[in-house]
Request: fold
Amino acid sequence: MRYCTRCVYPANHPLGLTFDEEGVCSGCRIHEEKDQLPWAERFEALRAIVESYRDRTGRHFDCIVPVSGARDSHFMVHTVKRELGLNPLLVSYNRQYNTRVGIRNLAYLRTSLDCDHMSQSPSPALLRRILRFTLNEAGSIYWHILAGATVFPVQVAVRLKIPLIIWGAHQGVDQVGMFSHLDEVEMTRKYRKDHDVLGLEAEDLAVASGIPIGDLEPFRYPSNEEIASVGVRGIYLNNYIRWDAKAQHEQMIATYGYESAPQTRTFNTYEDVDCVHYSGLHDWLKLLRYGFGKVSDHASREVRLRRLTREQAIDLVAQYQDVPPADLDRFVGWSGISREDVLAAVERQRNAAVWTRDSGTWRLGDAVTAHRGDAGVEAVRLGVVEPCDYRVTPSREPGVPDDRYITIGRGYVDAAPAQGVVPL
Ligand SMILES: [Zn+2]
Reply:
């Protein structure tokens, strides 16, 4: 396996990577733009774009911001409301695999930033039917979340005639450098189908699974005609703001009391704290399929942002990558699928191109740990300029264990600010 000489990404990254003559991946090269582009100017370009969508009557929302109980949500809403002065409608797809931390973060988000919020919660029975199919046939326990979270904002945009959707980071730009920031890539049906929903649209799922298409309405992307009739457009903040998720989360912790939480399979305690399975079984499936997990995404990003050396990043991958998921029993209990069937479906995802069997034990055929001393690493090394010190914040609901599913939580909190939180 070829690995980047700067970060820890392998050549088989599912979003696609290219390598230059120095062995540096496209994700690392495009990331260099973060230190080259005139970000103050770019933010003004963002202002100019959103200005034409501002509602002058005061009767309508200016834009839609898709949110969750974690990752970038506070920063996005803070930017849209406080920096750009827009009146956003927040929308979220209820992933069901909610943690208490995530429920609290979402409640504090809508309370402290004082926003209207709509959510979509498909019935648990339907989700179990979908899950049974996508786990067995596509090796995914996340299809309904990926599909629902990318469809619901567009459905609301069409239904309420709010043409502008503002997203956070485009992963094709931030992870793999598929596009330059200057391409100002926007939301498309095709990228979503190819990269977000495993090539499986609701219509495909209906045909393959026998679930009536009428039941799959929460996952049906609006037609081109519907989208065109409203002029729906989705833009990404990371094309206009120098994206640094760690710094942004720390700003949100300090300003609004955003809660972080320990994660099973990564050192990043900030991003996916709202989900029982993201850093567990879901990430384990990714490891079996591609030979790397979320910790490689996080470590590569920190190398690019000059908080880790490549060697420290490899150490973190070695520390977390093989940690077994701790959420299997909870998944079995919720899904109604037997433990044996779940394990069999999970095991079917193991990719023979990246795994080998050695004395009865599976191991990665060519892990990044074997690539510490690759030729060319020194020539493209970035210096480390600050520590990679992810923190775990105190619970805002101390004494309440986060040990079970919460499908629908209380959607608001009493308005008193948390200790240490700067009042608005
Ligand atoms: Zn790289």
Remarks:
- The chain has two domains: 37-259, 262-388.
